[in-house]
Design goal:
It is a single chain. This protein has about 140 residues and is mainly alpha-helical. Helices cover about 80% and strands about 0% of the residues. It folds into two domains: about 80 residues, no CATH class; about 45 residues, no CATH class. It has six helices and no strands. α2 packs antiparallel against α3, α2 packs parallel to α4 and α4 crosses α6. The protein starts with a helix and ends with a helix.
C-alpha cells in the first residue's frame, strides 16, 4: 500500500539510496581482500547517493552509503599508494644491498619465457641491463 502512494521519483530515489548503502558497505568490506578495486565500488556508491538525492534532502540510508563509500574509497587509495611507495622503497633498498637481485630476476624471466617456448624479448633484456646499471650506481653511491 505504501508503494502505491509513492511517486515513481520517490521509488527511484529509494532504490538508489539502497544501492548507495550496499555499495558503501561493499567498499568498506572489500578493504579486507581486494582494496585496489574498491575506489570503483566506492565511486559507484557515491554516484548512487548523489542520484538518490534529486531535489529533496538526502535520505538517511543514502547519507550512510555516501559516508561508507567515501571512507572505503579514501582508505583504499591510501593503502594502494602506501603499498606502491613501500614496494619502490624496498626494491631500491634491495638493489643497494643485494648484488644478486638482478641476476635472480633475470633467471626468473628466462625460466618463464623458456616454459612458454619463447626467447626473452629484447625489451626485457634492455630493462634488466638498465636495472643492473642502476644497481651498480646505487652501490657506488652516485
Amino acid at each position: 500500500m505504501e508503494q502505491e502512494l509513492l511517486s515513481d521519483k520517490q521509488l527511484a530515489a529509494r532504490k538508489f539510496s539502497r544501492l548507495a548503502f550496499i555499495f558503501g558497505i561493499i567498499s568498506l568490506a572489500g578493504l579486507i581482500c581486494c582494496f585496489p578495486i574498491m575506489p570503483v565500488i566506492g565511486g559507484l556508491g557515491i554516484i548512487f547517493a548523489l542520484i538518490s538525492r534529486g531535489r529533496e534532502p538526502m535520505s538517511r540510508e543514502a547519507r550512510q552509503g555516501l559516508i561508507y563509500s567515501v571512507t572505503g574509497t579514501a582508505v583504499s587509495l591510501l593503502l594502494t599508494v602506501g603499498i606502491m611507495v613501500f614496494s619502490v622503497y624496498y626494491t631500491i633498498n634491495e638493489l643497494k644491498t643485494n648484488d644478486k637481485v638482478v641476476d635472480e630476476v633475470r633467471e626468473q624471466y628466462e625460466q618463464m619465457f623458456e616454459n612458454a617456448g619463447m626467447d626473452v624479448p629484447p625489451e626485457i633484456e634492455d630493462m634488466l641491463d638498465r636495472m643492473e646499471d642502476y644497481a651498480e650506481k646505487l652501490r657506488e653511491g652516485k
